[in-house]
């Protein structure tokens, strides 16, 4: 069968551009039934030598230094936005107006207002769109969704999640510029809330439904840092840590914590759900495992079971090796690409769409508003 080409224009050549490029290259080998095949057409970065080296390394046909050349190129079908957050809206809106499909990195935007312009643009243009909340596509997390949807947990009482890191403790670490754009509020929009909690919120609402209202505290432990672009010591605008609790629409309580000051933790994303008849928990550091407590088990053998999610009848795992063999972080991106390609064949949305990701923006903004006003805030989420 000759495949339809999906010609990709990649913007950015950093961390995420690598994970996505790897995904485009591998998806056809492991999902041979798909009608479309990605073609790595053009990559964009601002530094000519670096972007050309990236194109060579990952197999892009060409490299450009202005993202508009990708958006305006008739030989490109889909634009993949892997730039820092401040560029997501401008690029996505231009790509939508040019009729391109869009795969945009998370968080969708810096603010709800900005996110809405993006939702409006893709919906007006009628172009296929998705946001890379890739943790949904880790097989153990997808299995958690199946268990929750099966009703096995019964009424849900609690949802808790953490995303802990430790890379900004050093007060000498500058803010802004290449590699440190996450420390600059103008570019990132927020700190851990948009960067890390956005992932936790997306997974949480996918598993447990809409978040109704929030009460949050944030802290910026290092108040001033040298800005790499201005070479001046400037106020730090981002949240270094954020703790919030919330009500979900289903009546359960949520508790979330994220920080870049948890010494010893690099990327400890964990979540746990407690229901009337059972509980689930998951840990990114052991990502193939889902732990499940089922109160309906016979009492003599009742206890937490540790499910190694590697069997062929578990989500996505029939595509990989043989039962018992693990996969990793990078596979979540391959799965999202496979689902995106399948969504084209089926004429369905590839979740989370811009509209779904905008709901996460609403929660993020309510969190920051709650922290600054020291009061509960309604999110306005429609899930
Ligand atoms: N899904 C996830 O788990 C995940 C993980 C990390 C980052 N992200 C998101 O991915 C996006 C990129 O993050 P990253 O970690 O890859 O950052 P990065 O700093 O590694 O890469 C950013 C890239 O954007 C390029 N860039 C900056 N300005 C540009 C411009 N004007 N034109 C063209 N290219 C430009 C940079 O040169 C760099 O190649 C962010 O929105 C981030 O929040 C998502």
Please describe what this structure looks like:
The protein has helices spanning 15-30, 48-58, 68-71, 88-97, 112-125, 139-150, 185-188, 192-208, 330-346, 354-373; strands spanning 4-11, 36-44, 62-64, 78-81, 101-104, 129-131, 156-164, 211-219, 224-226, 233-235, 241-248, 253-259, 268-275, 278-283, 289-294, 304-308, 377-378. The strands form three sheets. Strands 16-15-14-13-7-12-11-8-17 form a nine-stranded mixed beta sheet. It has a six-stranded parallel beta sheet with strand order 3-2-1-4-5-6, sandwiched between helices. Helices cover 33% and strands 25% of the residues. The chain folds into two domains: 4-134, Rossmann fold (3-Layer(aba) Sandwich); 136-378, 2-Layer Sandwich (Dihydrodipicolinate Reductase, domain 2). The chain has 383 residues and is α/β, with parallel strands linked by helices. The model has no long low-confidence stretch (mean pLDDT 98). Helix 5 (112-125) packs antiparallel against helix 10 (354-373). It has ten helices and 17 strands.
Write the layout of secondary structure elements.
Blueprint: E1 4-11, H1 15-30, E2 36-44, H2 48-58, E3 62-64, H3 68-71, E4 78-81, H4 88-97, E5 101-104, H5 112-125, E6 129-131, H6 139-150, E7 156-164, H7 185-188, H8 192-208, E8 211-219, E9 224-226, E10 233-235, E11 241-248, E12 253-259, E13 268-275, E14 278-283, E15 289-294, E16 304-308, H9 330-346, H10 354-373, E17 377-378
Parallel strand pairs: 1-2, 1-4, 2-3, 4-5, 5-6, 7-12
Antiparallel strand pairs: 7-13, 8-11, 8-17, 9-10, 11-12, 13-14, 14-15, 15-16
Helix pairs in contact: 1-9, 4-5, 5-10, 6-8, 8-10
The structure holds nicotinamide-adenine-dinucleotide.
């Amino acid at each position: 069968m000759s495949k339809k080409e999906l010609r990709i224009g990649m913007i950015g050549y950093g961390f995420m551009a690598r994970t996505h490029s790897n995904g485009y290259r591998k998806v056809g080998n492991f999902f041979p039934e798909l009608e479309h095949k990605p073609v790595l057409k053009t990559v964009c970065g601002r530094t000519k030598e670096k972007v050309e080296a990236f194109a060579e390394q990952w197999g892009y046909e060409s490299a450009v230094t202005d993202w508009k050349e990708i958006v305006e190129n008739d030989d490109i079908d889909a634009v993949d936005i892997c730039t820092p957050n401040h560029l997501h809206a401008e690029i996505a809106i231009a790509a939508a107006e040019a009729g391109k499909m869009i795969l945009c990195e998370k968080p969708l935007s810096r603010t709800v207002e900005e996110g809405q312009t993006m939702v409006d643009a893709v919906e007006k243009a009628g172009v296929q769109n998705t946001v890379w909340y890739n943790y949904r596509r880790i097989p153990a997390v997808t299995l958690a969704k199946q268990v929750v949807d099966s009703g096995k947990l019964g009424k849900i009482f609690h949802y808790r999640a953490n995303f802990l890191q430790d890379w900004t403790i050093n007060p000498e670490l500058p803010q802004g510029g290449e590699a440190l754009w996450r420390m600059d509020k103008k570019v990132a929009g927020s700190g851990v809330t948009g960067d890390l909690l956005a992932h936790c919120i997306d997974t949480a609402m996918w598993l447990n439904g809409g978040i109704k209202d929030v009460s949050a505290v944030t802290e910026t432990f290092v108040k001033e840092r040298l800005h790499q672009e201005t070479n001046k010591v400037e106020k730090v605008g981002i949240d270094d840590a954020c703790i919030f609790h919330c009500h979900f629409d289903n009546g359960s309580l949520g508790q979330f914590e994220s920080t870049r000051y948890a010494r010893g933790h690099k990327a400890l994303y964990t979540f746990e759900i407690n229901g009337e008849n059972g509980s689930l928990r998951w840990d990114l550091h052991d990502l193939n495992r889902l732990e499940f407590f089922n109160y309906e088990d016979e009492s003599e053998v009742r206890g937490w079971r540790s499910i190694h999610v590697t069997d062929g009848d578990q989500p996505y795992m029939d595509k990989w090796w043989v039962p018992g063999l693990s996969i990793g972080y990078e596979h979540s991106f391959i799965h999202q690409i496979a689902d995106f390609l399948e969504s084209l064949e089926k004429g369905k949305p590839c979740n989370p769409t811009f509209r779904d990701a905008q709901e996460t923006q609403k929660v993020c903004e309510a969190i920051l508003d709650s922290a600054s006003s020291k009061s509960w805030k309604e999110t306005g989420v429609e899930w």
